[in-house]
Amino acid sequence: MSRPSQPKVLSSEHNGVSVIQSQSHAAASSAAAAALLQQVPQLVPAHPSSPGAKAAAPGKMKKAQADKDSDEYRQRRERNNLAVKKSRQRSKQKAMDTQQRVNQLKEENERLEAKIKLLSKELSVLKDLFLEHAHNLADNVQPPSGNTDASPAPDNQ
Question: What number of other Cβ atoms are within 10 A of residue 17's Cβ?
């Protein structure tokens, strides 16, 4: 049993992108081998500055420090500063609105808890009245006159 050979790998660079070309080991002739060549574009830059480093965007590499004095740069900075100021103001307003809503909900919660206490006291008073009334009715009930054996004799106090 023979071991399969490694495919041939060729590397080239086109427009700053590395391209790997591989050739299958099963190709029988050079014409068939040429047909089996594949180009696979890679997402790695052709000349990375360090391992794992990201490549700078093409537009960013051309910017020079001299641009900071231009009118266009100042206008962009002013627009950006205004956008940042507006964003921070919206953020502050949102935080203030949220805090106001929290305060409203706390007040409503306190009010509802006070109402619960009041209603619980009222319920307790009504239960006591009901039980007292039911006890008084039970004391005043006379047993039926025809059947004295089935029911206990009333207490005479």
Answer: 13
Q: How far apart (Å, rounded) are the C-alpha atoms in residues 39 and 11?
A: 9
What are the residues whose beta carbons fall under 8 Å from the beta carbon of 27, sequence distance 6 or more?
A: 33, 36
Q: What is the DSSP letter of 146?
A: S
Neighbouring CB atoms inside 10 A of 38's CB total 11
Spatial CB neighbours of 144, under 8 Å, sequence gap ≥ 6:
151
Q: Residue 26 has what pLDDT?
A: 43
38 or 68, which is more confident: 68
Task: Strand 38-45: give its sheet, edge to edge.
Answer: 8-14, 17-23, 38-45
Distance CA 20, CA 48 (A): 16
Q: What is the DSSP letter of 100?
A: H
Listing DSSP states for 46-72 in one string gives SS-SSTTPPPPPHHHHT--GGGGGSHH
pTM beyond cutoff 0.85: no
